[in-house]
Amino acid sequence: MQIAFVTPEFITDYPDGGGLGNYLNRIGKFLVDQGHQPEIFVSSDLEPRILMLEGIRVERVPPFSRRLWARILGRMFTVAGEHWRVLFSSFSRSLALAEAMERRHRKRPFDIVQSADYLAVGLAVRRAKGRVHLVRCSGARDLYNKVDGCHHRAARWQERLERAAMRRADKAYAPSEFVAEHFRARHRIPVEVLRPPVGLEVVPSAGRPCGLPERFFVHFGILRRSKGTHWLGESLKRVFEVEPSLRMVWVGRGDFTEVGTLLSGLGRHRSKVQVLYPLPKPELYGVLQHADAAVLPSLVDNLPNTVIESLMMGIPVIGTRGASIDELVEQGVTGELVAPGDVEGLASTMVRVWRGQSSVRKGFAWRGGVVDEMQPERAIEKLLQMAGARNSESNPLVENASSDNLRS
């Protein structure tokens, strides 16, 4: 089958981060292995060109903001404020991506087009006979914005645009029941659940990375409030008073001024947390495989790659009940779960795991339950079944679009 993926990010442009780009790289390779022909259309500020990556055609698409009319409008939005400029940029990119995909479709028709809800990149994708448009929900922006404190008007409009993109598609799905249920209950969008395929794209770097503590817990990914970074910082104040031998390594991207302020609150224990900037995947996996446990206490999430990667490498996860972490982690078997925001609970759990008082042990084989649904052959089969189940006479997303009318 000919399958197009419309995305704001991919590993060709953003190699050291971005769960969405890593997911697309993973599923693209599996589709090629099964004889399908995936193509990536990625919004890019780099030189426009077509790349081939292990059988996957990748087209870098410049935003319309480079065109004269778009530059003029962009300056007008900039005057209105930075957030409005970002909103206009998002809309400009969605138009450019749709145009590039349609141009390719006329030469080599696609059976399936999958876009991300993130930044509403599929908003301009038109419905076409014989072609199914799926939207994969990377997250629920309104939930993230609430936790991260993004309350400005442009953020609310971005939420509405992303939901509008979901409703314009033939079907929408999310990796987690947590996010799917939120859209069903809060916004009346019939979002299905489809698990991503598991796999490690690269081999961990050989040897032990220099400068790591002999024993440590790792917290990695995006360092922000919604990922539990601030909650973890507060818990570490208790942890180090009770168990001064515990060491942590943080790896990722975020507002490092904010992270620095957070860690300065540890006072004399500050040196017990080592912070690294984003690392290439082999080096990141090299750090991860030497950790005693991964502390990933997201307050809002969507079956995060960080948890999946940890479990695949047999690294126990200390995470959250809810926020989709408990859809992956089995309490007492592959990790420990804590009530969201419970500072004392997270601290005591970390100490217990560090002291070997938990039943969870590093080096387990992750199998059974949700991971069976995530085996590549099964995950791709379900994706193709979802696309093939489209009823061209009835589109529940379109039928429900008028009820929202971009209000919620």
Please explain how this structure is put together.
With 408 residues, the protein is of the alpha/beta class. It folds into two domains: 2-197 and 376-404, 3-Layer(aba) Sandwich (Rossmann fold); 217-354, Rossmann fold, CATH 3.40.50. 41% of the residues lie in helices and 17% in strands. The chain has 14 helices and 14 strands. An eight-stranded mixed β-sheet has the order 3-4-2-1-5-6-7-8, sandwiched between helices. The longest helix has 26 residues, at 82-107.
Which key features would you list for this structure?
single chain, 408 residues, alpha/beta, Rossmann fold, eight-stranded mixed beta sheet, six-stranded parallel beta sheet, disordered C terminus
The biggest beta sheet, please? 8 strands, mixed
How many helical stretches? 14
Rounded mean pLDDT is 90
The radius of gyration computed from the alpha-carbon positions, rounded to a whole number of angstroms, is 22 Å
- The total domain count is 2
Given the C-alpha coordinates, what overall shape results? globular
Helix content: 40-55%
- How does CATH name the architecture of the largest domain? 3-Layer(aba) Sandwich
Order of helices and strands: EHEEEHHEEHHEHEEHEHEHEHEEHHHH
Please write out the topology.
Blueprint: E1 2-7, H1 19-33, E2 37-43, E3 50-53, E4 56-61, H2 68-80, H3 82-107, E5 112-116, E6 132-136, H4 141-148, H5 153-168, E7 171-174, H6 177-187, E8 192-193, E9 217-223, H7 229-242, E10 248-254, H8 256-264, E11 273-276, H9 281-288, E12 293-295, H10 305-312, E13 317-320, E14 335-338, H11 343-354, H12 370-373, H13 376-388, H14 396-404
Parallel strand pairs: 1-2, 1-5, 2-4, 5-6, 6-7, 7-8, 9-10, 9-12, 10-11, 12-13, 13-14
Antiparallel strand pairs: 3-4
Helix pairs in contact: 2-3, 3-5, 5-14, 7-11
